[in-house]
């Protein structure tokens, strides 16, 4: 293939159109390169339900085995199930998925032993360089024995581990609608929730990598509409929506209203702090709500603010020994899950919290949702740096605000804040704003957009 690896090797993973941008021959080289860069003598692979996933995963395993690496294949799994296997078996891992991307895409999420992340600065750049070289020259001849390929089931172990981290033994009966979006939630949810007092109403549980019902991307409100309608129609206690590889979980309340991932972060943070004796570090990215650090402090914890992106969250969790971390995008990270993200564990916390009291979910989460947010607003701009500079100039010198550039530009006042970040892959600026009331948020949002879009 004359594939341009710069187009498919992203900041944290490999992702592109199959077979136009990459195929099984390239996957085999990635397997060999991953084996060399990690120096592992064994690794674990898993894959989602996309039509191209089994072949790509097997090709990767073949590439690693050619150089003496023993490969444990766990087959169909969610991304957090692959992280479980990497952690429990203490092996590097590779998950074949393109998450919420359309059906023609596929990708590889790689990790070192113990689910430690692999990104551009932690091995991915080296892997890319090897694949580029070997594509021209051919991979070197193996020196020793060929590794083995062994099949292993991990779904029951994964589910048992998650249930061991949340006490769900005394919850009241709950009616729960789950929209798996034809993704891997249809594979994991029935096993994880088995035996709980949950009346499960499944939506789109059939594994289908062509996504016939809607995109498996709950971050887009259009993809929550079916779930919201079903929750109302069923009179359910809540609804859960998972993305394609089921590592992210979105929640809607009994009215069918979306619950902010910041509110879920705050709720889970309070519960994790209680589990850890009322102390510990909680990581949150800089565009989660003010509610998150407030709730963390109120419950005895120490909030630590970080840049957006799982590599930054995981690095800070490792550095600080944090017990939990959350992002606005509904990624939730747990120390007891090898610092990896698992939406399923966050969902169990929500079920335990709701089932442990008598009120509706809307009332429960109200205490964690204290401000008015804009949501993320994208603006296409000709020059990201120029528009950011104009925004910085508009607020520099004002006594009532504080500016910081941890990630893009954040402007903070007594009653509001906003952050503007450039996209790494598109000519976009992303605005998030929050205030104590709707009128202030609207005013600040519109002021910032006027500068951005000038």
UniProtKB/TrEMBL annotation:
Domain of life: Bacteria
Co-factor(s): Mg(2+)
Record-linked InterPro entries: A-D-PHexomutase_a/b/a-I (IPR005844), A-D-PHexomutase_a/b/a-I/II/III (IPR016055), A-D-PHexomutase_a/b/a-II (IPR005845), A-D-PHexomutase_a/b/a-III (IPR005846), A-D-PHexomutase_C (IPR005843), A-D-PHexomutase_C_sf (IPR036900), Alpha-D-phosphohexomutase_SF (IPR005841)
Coiled-coil segments: none
Cited Gene3D superfamilies: Alpha-D-Glucose-1,6-Bisphosphate, subunit A, domain 3, Alpha-D-phosphohexomutase, C-terminal domain
GO molecular function per UniProt: intramolecular phosphotransferase activity; metal ion binding
Domain Alpha-D-phosphohexomutase alpha/beta/alpha: 7-135, 157-256, 266-371
Keyword line: Isomerase, Magnesium, Metal-binding, Phosphoprotein
A biological process from GO: carbohydrate metabolic process
Residues in Alpha-D-phosphohexomutase C-terminal domain copies: 376-448
Entry similarity comment: Belongs to the phosphohexose mutase family.
PANTHER family: PHOSPHOMANNOMUTASE
UniProt-recorded name of the protein: Phosphomannomutase/phosphoglucomutase
Organism expressing this protein natively: Streptomyces mexicanus
Lineage summary: Bacteria, Bacillati, Actinomycetota, Actinomycetes, Kitasatosporales
